[in-house]
Amino acid sequence: MIASPTTPVSVHTTASIATMVGGELVGRPDLPVLELAGLEQANGTSLTFIRSSKFAVQWPKSRAAAALVNRRVPIPGHDPTTRALILVENADLAMVKVLHLFLPAAHVPGAGIHARALVDPSARIGRNVSVGANTIIGPETEIGDGCVVHPNVTMGAHVRIGPMTTLHPSVVIYDRCVIGAQCILHGGVVIGADGFGFVPDPAGRGLVKVPHVGTVEIGNGVEIGANSCVDRGKFGATIVGDGTKIDNLVQIGHNVRIGRSCVVCGMTGIAGSVHIEDGVMIGGHVGVADGHHIGRGARVSAMSGVMDDVPAGATWFGTPAGNHKDQMRSFVALRQLSTYLREIKRSLKTPDAKG
Fold first, then answer.
1. Which residue, 72, 76, 126, 345, is most buried by CB atoms nearer than 10 A?
2. d(Cα 58, Cα 77) in Å, to the nearest integer?
3. Overall number of domains in the chain
């Protein structure tokens, strides 16, 4: 359950929440809403949400006082004299608005630079910036107005951070990398480490490391999840476009170019020089081989291995990944294969009629 310790319990009711999200109230307007919860965990002062018929069937057994419901989803067993439904076009988007009502104030370092931070004299720090303890800010680095830098962050030389960006604890940003405005980098993110480049030593003495002299450029409004890494370019920049959201434990290789408003889910690995256009969605645990192109608005399903270019707007899945319809035909055929094999074995054991 999510409740705000700073919000008076009398503020939110089913009627006030319905008004805030622009929903149609079906049921009691006076029920207090003190917390948010899932259908199974809810109690008599909880608000939950229902996005599909799969969850709607749980409503009669749920103890929730109210639910945000996608308008076209029928809800069985609703008693409007005791509970409330708030009908909206999109329950997920409506819940985002409600979550902000219950969001506790985040802890941020105190205004200014903590006494235990180490800031190079040549660094330029904007107005209203908070810098936490044990943070290191290198030479000629610039931090824009309103940034929040949590403890134990390390920034190298000539780094640029745009206004209103938040760097959570233990973020590391190597030399010359650029982070845009209003970005969020979660704990343990590493920006600008060397790309994974090695060539065989002609003398047969192992591997020769390939230097990476490029940078990383992160656009505005980008969010990068905990312990994800974006490697610097071999030459030029590795680029993440405006508004793109990257989950935890994602690896982005050198000279990758990711467009605007993309989504990359957890444990995905994107090899070097991949080009991902705007609006692409990549599921969890996807691997993308180096040098390939994923077209605008394409979808790559979880656990896929991309070993070829993906056309714009296509949905691919599988390993090796392919077009959704083609892959489904292959899976159907594979499932039928055991039946065919049994029939072949049976026919081989059957004596020939002429024998």
1. 126
2. 10
3. 1
H or E segment and range at residue 134: none
CA max distance for the chain: 98
In a domain, 83, yes or no: yes
Pair of tokens at residue 329: 């035909």
Strands (E), 16-135: 24-27, 35-36, 46-50, 66-70, 84-88, 112-113, 118-119, 124-125, 130-131
What is residue 330's DSSP assignment? H
With a CB cutoff of 8 Å and minimum separation 6, the contacts of 90 are 70
Q: Which residues of 119-134 are buried (b: 16+ CB within 10 A; e: fewer)?
A: beeebebeeebbbbee
**pTM here?**
0.88
Domain boundaries, position 25: 14-102
**What is the arithmetic mean of pLDDT over 244-255?**
98
End-to-end alpha carbon distance in the chain: 75
Which residues does 153 contact at the CB level (< 8 Å), separation at least 6?
132, 135, 136, 167, 168, 169, 170, 171, 172, 173
* Domain membership flag for residue 284: no
The reported pLDDT for the residue numbered 351 is 66
Residue given tokens 């343990």 in the structure block: 188
Would you say residue 93 lies in a domain? yes
Q: Please, which residues bridge with residue 264 across strands? A: 246, 282
**What are the catalytic residues?**
254
- φ, ψ of residue 348 to 5 degrees: the values are -70, -30
| Cα pseudo-dihedral 18, 20, 23, 25, rounded to 10 | 20
Angstrom distance (rounded) from CA 60 to CA 64: 10
Nearest of 96, 103, 105, 102 to residue 148 by alpha carbon: 105
The reply to whether 84 falls in a domain is yes
Write the CB contacts of 178 (distance below 8 Å, at least 6 apart in sequence): 159, 160, 215, 216, 217, 218
What are the tokens at 174? 């190597």
